Amino acid sequence: MLPTGYGIRPLAVEDAPALAAAYSRNREHLAPWDPRRTGEFFTEAAQRKDAEAKLESAALGLQHPWLLVHGDEVVGRVNLNNVVRGVFQSASLGYWVDHRHTGRGLATAAVGCALRRAVELGLHRVEAGTLVGNVASRAVLRRCGFEQYGVASDYLFIAGAWQDHLLFQRILHDRPAGAAAP
After folding, report:
1. What is the mean pLDDT of residues 12-25?
2. Long-range contacts of 76-85 (CB under 8 A, 24+ apart)
3. Given this model, what pLDDT does residue 172 score?
4. Rounded to whole angstroms, what are the CA distances from 84 to 38, 71, 143?
5. DSSP assignment letter at 89
6. What average pLDDT does range 148-160 have in this prediction?
7. Which CATH number is 6-171's, of 3.30.1360.120, 3.40.50.12780, 3.30.70.260, 3.40.630.30?
8. Average pLDDT over the chain, rounded to whole?
9. Which parts of 35-176 are beta strand (E)?
10. Which residues cross the membrane (predicted)?
């Protein structure tokens, strides 16, 4: 459950100005956990283009992007990415919270919302990777029922270097592949 005054809703192209403001405001906060970004990334035009691409992918069922909001302000994101159907029935999870809004349970609530949606979609498994030093993210994942299942060396190029990640998963059900949620 999100704290009072906060909401979660699907991404829209019209969110580009608010996203540009959120990423600009959190540039330093997110830098250790994100790929290096050019100045263009923080513009409304780049955020509009990114939103359009994400929504095209969402229309194909390949991802589900949401925003965390506080009033009209974007204060974070949560996404189910790389949705794979067939015998895998899986997705990858990504999320972040604005530095001015951390410590309020928003990440845990957002991940919980994404997991509920994953169950509705009939997914069997959600995975997440986190940098070895990201203690806060590990805590969120564990609170949401994820278990660590491995370490991936040089997994992603983050903050200008190949970084090791801890790999987590949450098994959502044991129904046969493609079976609808109850």
Report:
1. 98
2. 76/22, 76/101, 76/106, 76/107, 76/110, 77/11, 78/8, 78/110, 78/111, 78/113, 78/114, 79/54, 79/114, 80/114, 80/117, 80/118, 80/121, 80/123, 80/126, 83/121, 83/123, 85/61, 85/178
3. 97
4. 30, 33, 25
5. -
6. 97
7. 3.40.630.30
8. 96
9. 64-70, 73-84, 90-97, 125-131, 147-158, 161-171
10. none
Tell me if the pTM is above 0.90.
yes
Residue 177: its pLDDT value, please?
73
**Domain ranges across the chain:** 6-171
Q: Give the pLDDT of residue 175.
A: 79
Up-side HSE of residue 32: CA atoms within 13 Å toward CB?
9
The CA–CA distances, whole Å, from 141 to 7, 112, 138 equal: 20, 10, 5
CA 170/CA 173 separation, integer angstroms: 9
Assess whether pLDDT exceeds 70 at residue 69: yes
Residue 36 phi, psi dihedral angles, 5° rounding: -65, 140
The position carrying tokens 């990504």 is 94
| Token code pair at residue 150 | 């491995």
Tell me what pLDDT residue 1 has. Answer: 84
**126, pLDDT greater than 90:** yes
For residue 143, what are the contacts with CB-CB under 8 A and spacing of at least 6? 108
Task: Using the predicted structure, report yes or no on whether residue 179 has a pLDDT greater than 90.
Answer: no
Are 83 and 91 a contacting pair, CB within 8 Å? yes
